[in-house]
Design goal:
By secondary structure, this protein is an alpha/beta fold. The chain has two domains: about 220 residues, 3-Layer(aba) Sandwich (Rossmann fold), CATH 3.40.50; about 280 residues. It contains 17 helices and eight strands. It has an eight-stranded mixed β-sheet, with helices on both faces. Helix 12 packs antiparallel against helix 13. It is rod-shaped. Bound molecules: guanosine-5'-diphosphate and magnesium ion.
């Protein structure tokens, strides 16, 4: 049976070791805290070490006295001052002066049988004014396989003790409560009341039902043993019964000693030893899952902001596209009126009586300009200018609202602590940097935004396009000038048809038919001009809109990529850690099933 258990123990240790390494790798990959990584690295070694029975409690509760009682010797200094600044590890061996091993750790030896199986650790008292001592003890807690928590009958469970117990429980440690100083009781009822009180408080405040609890007098026990020793060394030297103190029926020291010397030498020790790494893993995993979860929330928040910026951009573009149509309608109306004027001009002008006038190209052109073209080019130019101004203004507004959104988001994150300067992990660092990168160009652009210059650039490009489209090669000053030239081409065509020869040969006979054809041609020209202008303006507008969209997307894109990578990384790390948590539970159950708890 023993062999089977040993083999099973070996198997479980191997599984645990593999799990510890797996968690260590997962934490390293997810930029886990270096303290956690160090803890896991030492955990691997500690698994091979002896069982650690760690005695904790506030100073002066009798920790050192209790250990001395176990040894039946005064190995540790007992006193009223919180002087035990170091952790004292007691191992099996010849007694002698302690050795300092590492910072704040002293190694003692004593030839007590039980020490072959376990090391006993005396810790500096918590709650002394020396915060250092408490920190040393707290740091040692994760290593414990079992914690003996010593409190005093006269002051059971102070606020700071509760705080310390919470810390111990976070590491999943089994705690045995030792209430010391029963010799100082006023009555037996006092002991019963304290037991009831502690059982209740431990259950409600720490969630541990039926705690293991021993009411002892370490001092009586120690004195008894020392006296027995003396008696052994010099029999019949005194008539007093040395075991009188130990025979106090309310002193449960003998039961506690049995627990340490006997129970702990059996499967209980193996069980607890196997549970220790699992408790440590569970605690580290819990903390890291929580912090990754928090990071994931931040990443989701950020992604939401980017999505909202993209949505704003989409809404802006859609709205701009549909709103821009109204400028095209204005252009069409100008041309429509021009067409109307042109039609009646042809009616009035293309007549036999005007033959002389019609032969004068310059005169026709001038009159056509004065009576048909009129201010249409200026009107169209005005529409184009207004359209451009509107586009530029709206774009500026989009940038401002994107900026405001980012700003509000940063403020929210800062408030929630997600951007706190103490967050010195790579995650926060990258994030801050990207935020700065994201804001900087927007801020700069808002500062430099020159509406006039933007508008001028757009009008220039429209001008260039009109020049190419209508084949008017003029280095004109304004868009209007180019349009005048374009319209006049229409008039020139009119005069081109009405040559002198036509009048001479066909005379008045063909005039009405000619006129009709001219009007038709003119209408077709205007329709084409309208279509060309609309296409042109749409294209220019679309070009502009696309440029604006690209400008914003270019700024947002690296950030979006970062978030995407970060999210994938976080999610896979979380899955990994959650899987490990599952594994901890499975192993815990196996340990409990293989080495069941002994009820005493
Ligand atoms: N009356 C009484 N005094 C005790 C008992 N245990 C320890 N003391 C005294 O309390 C003081 C502090 O004990 P010590 O073991 O040094 O406490 P530690 O600081 O927790 O290690 C010493 O003077 C001990 O003699 C006890 O059970 N009864
Ligand atoms: Mg002490």
């Amino acid at each position: 049976m023993e062999q089977v258990l040993t083999r099973q123990q070996g198997e479980l240790v191997a599984l645990e070791r593999r799990l510890v390494l797996r968690v260590r790798d997962a934490l390293a990959k997810s930029d886990g805290p270096s303290a956690d990584l160090e803890r896991l690295a030492s955990l691997v070694n500690e698994m091979d070490e002896l069982f650690l029975l760690v005695v904790v409690g506030e100073y002066n509760t009798g920790k050192s006295t209790f250990i001395n009682a176990l040894l039946g010797d005064e190995v540790f200094a007992m006193g009223d001052l919180p002087t035990t600044r170091a952790i004292s590890i007691l191992s099996y061996g010849e007694a002698g002066p302690p050795k300092a091993i590492g910072e704040n750790v002293h190694l003692f030896h004593y030839p007590l049988e039980v020490l072959r199986d376990l090391d006993i650790v005396d810790t500096p008292g918590t709650n002394s004014i020396e915060r250092m001592e408490e920190a040393i003890t707290r740091g040692f807690v994760p290593r414990a396989d079992l914690v003996l928590f010593v409190t005093s009958l006269l002051q059971p469970l102070t606020a700071s003790e509760l705080d310390f117990l919470t810390h111990i429980r976070e590491w999943g440690k089994k705690v045995v409560f030792v209430v010391n100083g029963v010799d100082r009781r006023n009555s037996d009822e006092q002991v019963d009341r304290v037991r009831e009180y502690l059982t209740r408080e431990i259950a409600t405040r720490l969630g541990a039902s039926a705690p293991t609890m021993y009411f002892i007098s370490a001092l009586q026990a120690l004195r008894g043993k020392l006296a027995a020793r003396k008696e052994f060394a010099a029999p019949n030297s005194s008539g007093a019964t040395p075991s009188a103190a130990v025979s106090d029926p309310r002193n449960e020291y003998p039961a506690l000693e049995r627990y340490v010397l006997e129970t702990l030498r059996e499967t209980e020790r193996v069980r607890l030893k196997l549970l220790t790494p699992l408790g440590v893993l569970r605690n580290l995993l819990k903390g890291n899952v929580a912090s990754l979860d928090k990071r994931l929330v931040v990443v989701h928040e950020d992604a939401r902001v980017l999505r909202s910026i993209r949505e704003q951009l989409d809404a802006y573009s859609a709205e701009m596209r549909s709103d821009s149509e109204r400028y095209l309608i204005e252009v069409r109306n100008v041309l429509y009126e021009l067409e109307g004027r042109g039609r009646s001009w042809f009616e009035r002008t293309i007549r036999i009586g005007n033959a002389n006038f019609l032969r004068n190209k310059d005169a026709v052109e001038n009159r056509f300009r004065a009576e048909v073209v009129r201010d249409s080019p200026q009107a169209i130019e005005g529409v184009v200018h207004r359209m451009v101004d509107w586009t530029v203004q709206r774009n500026l507004r989009l940038w401002s609202s994107v900026f405001a959104e980012l700003d509000a988001h940063t403020a929210r994150l800062r408030e929630s602590g997600a951007l706190a300067p103490h967050g010195d992990t790579e995650f926060h660092y990258n994030r801050e940097e990207l935020f700065a990168r994201l804001r900087e160009p927007i801020e700069r652009r808002l500062g430099e935004f020159d509406t006039d210059k933007e508008a001028r650039e757009i009008v220039d490009s429209v001008k260039e396009a009109v020049t190419t489209a209508f084949g008017v090669n003029i280095l004109a000053i304004g868009l209007g000038g180019i349009l005048v030239a374009a319209f006049t081409t229409a008039a020139l065509d009119v005069t081109g048809v009405l040559t002198a020869t036509v009048f001479a040969i066909a005379g008045w006979l063909i005039i009405p038919a000619r006129r009709r054809r001219l009007v038709n041609e003119f209408e077709a020209k205007i329709a084409k001009l309208n279509a060309d202008l609309a296409t042109l303006l749409r294209a220019k507008f679309e070009e502009q809109l696309t440029r604006y969209e690209r400008q914003i997307l270019e700024i947002v894109a690296p950030y979006a990529r970062f978030l995407e990578t970060e999210q994938t990384k976080l999610e896979s790390s979380l899955a990994e850690l959650r899987g490990a948590e599952q594994e901890v539970t499975t192993l815990e159950q196996r340990v409990m099933a293989t080495f069941p708890e002994e009820r005493n």
